[in-house]
Model the fold of this input.
Amino acid sequence: AAAGLCPCRALLIRRGGALRALCGSVRGFAAGPETHFGFQTVTEAERREKIYQVFESVAKKYDVMNDSMTLGIHRVWKDILVHKMNPSPGTLLLDVAGGTGDIAFRFINYVRSVRERQLQRKLRHSQNLSWQEISESYQEDKSKSLGDSQVVVCDINKEMLKVGKQKAQHLGYSEGLSWVLGNAEELPFDDDKFDVYTIAFGIRNVTRIDLALQEAYRVLKPGGRFLCLEFSHVSNPLLSRLYDLYSFQVIPVLGEVIAGDWKSYQYLVESIRRFPPQEEFKAMVEDAGFFKVDYQNLNSGIVAIHSGFKL
Amino acid sequence: ARPVSVPRGAAGPVPHPPSTPAGRARLSSAEPRARGGRSGEEEEEEEEEAAEKEEGCYQLYPGHIPTSPLQKALLAAGSALMALYDPYRHDMVAVLGETTGCLALPSLRDKMKHHPEGYRILQERPRIRLSTLDMARLQGLPDGTLGREYVRFLEDNKVSPDTRMPPKFVDDEELAYVIQRYREVHDLMHTLLGMPTNMLGEVVVKWFEAVQTGLPMCVLGAAFGPVRLSARKLQVLATELVPWAIRSGRNASCILNVYYEQRWEQPVESLREEIGIFPPP
Done:
């Protein structure tokens, strides 16, 4: 049936596009500037509402779906992000759109292991102390297993935060972790507060990316680092075709079978295609005032990490 | 010449099944005019146009998700596995039925078209839903009538006719109605066969439906459902219930050709005899 429609498809799309533009301009007067939701055209207000609903509906199955869609590779991507960050104990991290806490937990694990190594080194140097002095040093070090590092997880969606909190409880993370409901376009934090700002697989869901980048700049301390992990564009043509095939044919099916929600995952693959490519996003980050902006492609551009500094 | 179907205003757009690409094109240009200024409907229109853009097909009815053959194959396999893994995923059973029914559904539709009562059902497109049923009246009917027994069945098993999933992956809107009707009539099957909604009862009804409709989903459900039953139940199933279900299924006329909504007052026994279902063991 689809093949039979091919000759008509081009004609219909052109006509459909003209009609849509007409409807769009009529509605534009009423409800604000136009933007995209996947491959649809909607107003900004509608887009925010739809995206909220998408994440509200997928929250419980978010982690399961991530594992099945990426065959577990998303864990490696997030590990690479935290390794690139290389946080030392005492770092204050803001993880925006951090919903289910993946980056936050990895940050805590990393800082803990760095801290442990620090303590081990200290111990080796103080092997000539008396046993009393050693046990005293245990007391004070226990209360600082994270070394004053802290992570604030900020997300606009209550359901995602709920799932994140439950996960934290289940996995035993409590120290140095805070959960805040907030909008990336308008963060509820003061200027110059954080050492690192991360946003992993979240910025493509933000309606005004420029505002989010400006907010990121505002809340970072001078010397602070901006890190963004996001799906990006694949330039290799063969890989790009395979990736498209997988994205459009398999992922919505996985969404239907595992989460009972085709449309949210259809939105997901469309939103990936709509996000600006590496160089364009790099320019947007520079526009917000960051310096030494660079990006690192993972898996030939399926995912990219953009990094910038506030000086 | 096919007679024009009665438009169901509440259910959405007028169901003129487009049989040619030109017919589909006309449907597209008609939509903006028909949809007026309601923002919710405009979004639906956009979703339809977006769906059209992706797959080259239209959204043929509200809730329709056009899918490619590869997607249907993946869905069929995935939903089958998921339904086996987690039998409480009724939506997976529904999806399996839709993606595998491409041969059985047209033959069911033809059976309906060639039968006077079935033909009327296809024309009028009745829906069995709490909003369309007059529960008070049905409860007031004498014991033994279809209406009374149906309500009793719903109460005893704590089910509601509103939990049936609307079809999403059927690419023909009349066939979508056929499968919707099949789902809504399923509870009436339980009533007519006298089977409860536990695993054993469901398997028996699936055997009956498999013989009646030939839907691959019913066949698979009938074959794999018993996997989760205990040995004792399996024995009862194999020796008494399944042979009876098969015999009744073969003997009975097409269950979709009965206009149940007009037969609430008819006694269950008489309806069983009329259709050809043997008394349950």
Notes: Chain B has one domain: 69-275. Confidence is low (pLDDT under 50) at residues 1-56 of chain B. Residues 69-275 of chain B form one domain. Chain B has 13 helices and no strands.
